């Protein structure tokens, strides 16, 4: 004859504790893994702009980043930026150079596309549209959310790569060609994967689509 | 083999220190010391030790801010002798302060880097020659950016035919920076190392002790020719520097 043994009070408490712990661990795992969970989404249909022709929408993993372009400050650079967007050349472009809470960089058309990453050459890729002259502004301050054209060590080597600052970087004033500023979605960019303390990111996040606002 | 190269590349990539200043001038562990200046020069200081260059052969240590603060007015006074237009022409925008600067194991006062528009200065360099060292290094930036103007063969031809420079500045033991009593074509022992150091020594004295040089050249024909060469060619870049 088998005797049924009743669980003691302390065993019941331990059992409930273990169940609670596993529920907590399970939910935490999914919550922590979803880096976009608490990021505000930007609904494009609800947004209105004074100069919609100069608004670009960059869609990344956590949502839309809305950028206002400044053709009055750097006409050639903005013209190039718009061409690259309209030709969908930034789609799939990896944020291969990211400094935590400082800046994110993408736009290597040749070697920095997520489908064709080449770490031995990344940062040296060309768009095929030729190099641009730097359009520097001593008045433009690289505050949080500023978008600038990246270049090689020398000036007049801008092509397609761009960076977005995640904090004010006063030393960039007069050093880089400004393209525009992020008007919505800066917090989305802070979720972009960093390379820890390194400047290059392995298995980087990337731009899903990049479109002009009018084309959406 | 490919996997080994990839591993090395990844390891290398992962050990580059990333920040906004590194992104600009390729020197890690720097912070802004003073950004706004009349001649648009920007001063940066090492907040940590750094190693740069081929095989990381350039090393320097972080600055003690009290030490830098005590020396900065002297540095600024000397750098302010150059206007922004001139600094643009010689590709000098950033001055990096650090302590105990070495290149390939040899202690040096400064390292010019025209490509990144940067001059690295060791703030612990010998006090006696410190101001002159600043201008000496600035001259290297001038020459590097205008190598066609400062023709070393022409400059060397002012010396006696029996004299030969060393093959490199650190190839000889002629390192003394004291001014000769009898110049005989050279201001210091270090002037005898290589033509570019000879030119830099002349320029540094012209910037810090012009009267002494004017006095010396009145009785030294070789030195007179060399000084005139420097003055004449500098005037091609900026008439108001000397």
User: How would you spell out the order of helices and strands of chain A?
Assistant: HEEHEEEEEEEHE
Biggest interface, chains and residues, is: A-B, 23 and 21 residues
Relative strand content of chain B: 15-25%
Query: Largest sheet of chain B, described in full?
Result: 8 strands, mixed
**Secondary-structure element string of chain B:** HHEEEEHHEEEEHHHHH
Class by helix and strand content of chain A?
Answer: alpha+beta
User: From the 3D coordinates, which CATH architecture of the largest domain in chain A would you assign?
Assistant: Beta Barrel
Number of helical segments of chain B? 9
Radius of gyration of chain B: 19 Å
Give the overall form of chain B. globular
Mean pLDDT of chain A: 91
The number of strands of chain B is: 8
Largest sheet of chain A: 8 strands, antiparallel
Please bin the fraction of helical residues of chain A.
10-25%
Structural class of chain B: alpha+beta
Q: What's the structural domain tally of chain B? A: 2
Whole-Å distance between the termini of chain A? 75 Å
What does this structure look like?
- The complex is a heterodimer of chains A (216) and B (242).
- Chain A is α+β, with helices and mostly antiparallel strands and 216 residues long.
- Chain A is built from three helices and ten strands, in the order H-E-E-H-E-E-E-E-E-E-E-H-E.
- Chain A folds into two domains: 31 residues; 172 residues, Cyclophilin-like (Cyclophilin).
- In chain A, strand 5 and strand 6 form a beta hairpin.
- The termini of chain A are far apart.
- The mean pLDDT of chain A is 91.
- Chain B is of the alpha+beta class.
- Chain B has two domains: 130 residues, Glutaredoxin; 92 residues, no CATH class.
- Chain B is built from nine helices and eight strands.
- In chain B, strands 1, 2, 3, 4, 5, 6, 7 and 8 form an eight-stranded mixed β-sheet that branches.
- In chain B, a hairpin with a 2-residue loop joins strand 5 and strand 6.
- About 5% of the residues of chain B have low confidence.
- At the A-B interface, strand 3 of A face helix 1 and helix 2 of B.
């Amino acid at each position: 004859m088998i005797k049924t043994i009743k669980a003691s009070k302390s065993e019941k408490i331990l059992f409930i504790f273990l169940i609670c712990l596993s529920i907590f661990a399970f939910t935490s795992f999914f919550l922590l893994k979803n880096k976009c969970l608490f990021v505000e989404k930007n609904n494009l249909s609800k947004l209105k702009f004074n100069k919609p022709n100069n608004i670009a929408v960059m869609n990344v993993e956590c949502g839309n980043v809305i950028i206002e372009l400044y053709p009055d400050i750097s006409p050639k650079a903005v013209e190039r930026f718009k061409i690259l967007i309209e030709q969908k050349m930034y789609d799939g472009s990896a944020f291969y150079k990211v400094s935590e809470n400082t800046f994110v960089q993408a736009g290597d058309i040749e070697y920095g596309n997520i489908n064709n990453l080449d770490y031995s050459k990344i940062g040296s890729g060309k768009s095929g549209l030729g190099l641009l002259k730097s359009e520097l502004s001593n008045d433009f301050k690289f505050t949080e959310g500023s978008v600038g054209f990246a270049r090689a060590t020398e000036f007049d080597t801008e092509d397609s790569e761009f960076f977005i600052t995640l904090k004010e970087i006063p030393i960039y004033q007069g050093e880089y060609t400004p393209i525009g500023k992020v008007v919505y979605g800066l917090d989305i960019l802070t979720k972009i994967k960093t390379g820890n303390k390194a400047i290059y990111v392995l298995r980087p996040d990337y731009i899903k689509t990049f479109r002009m606002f009018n084309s959406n | 083999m490919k996997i080994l190269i990839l591993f090395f590349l990844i390891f290398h990539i992962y050990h580059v220190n990333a920040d906004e200043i590194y992104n600009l001038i390729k020197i890690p562990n720097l912070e802004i010391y003073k950004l706004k200046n009349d001649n648009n020069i920007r001063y940066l200081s090492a907040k940590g030790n750094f190693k740069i260059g081929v095989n990381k052969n350039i090393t320097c240590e972080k600055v003690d801010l009290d030490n830098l603060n005590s020396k900065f007015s002297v540095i600024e006074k000397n750098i302010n002798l150059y206007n922004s237009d001139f600094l643009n022409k010689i590709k000098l925008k950033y001055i990096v302060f650090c302590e105990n600067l070495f290149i390939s194991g040899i202690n040096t006062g400064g390292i010019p880097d025209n490509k990144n528009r940067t001059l690295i200065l060791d703030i612990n360099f010998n006090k006696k020659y410190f101001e002159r060292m600043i201008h000496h290094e600035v001259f290297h930036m001038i020459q590097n950016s205008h190598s066609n103007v400062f023709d070393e063969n022409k400059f060397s031809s002012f010396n006696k035919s029996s004299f030969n420079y060393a093959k490199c500045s650190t190839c000889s033991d002629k390192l003394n920076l004291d001014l000769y009593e009898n110049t005989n074509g050279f201001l210091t022992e270090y002037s005898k190392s290589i033509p570019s150091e000879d030119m830099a020594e002349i320029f540094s004295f012209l910037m810090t002790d012009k009267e002494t040089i004017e006095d010396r050249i009145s009785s030294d024909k070789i030195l007179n020719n060399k000084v005139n060469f420097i003055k004449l060619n500098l005037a091609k870049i900026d008439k108001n520097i000397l």
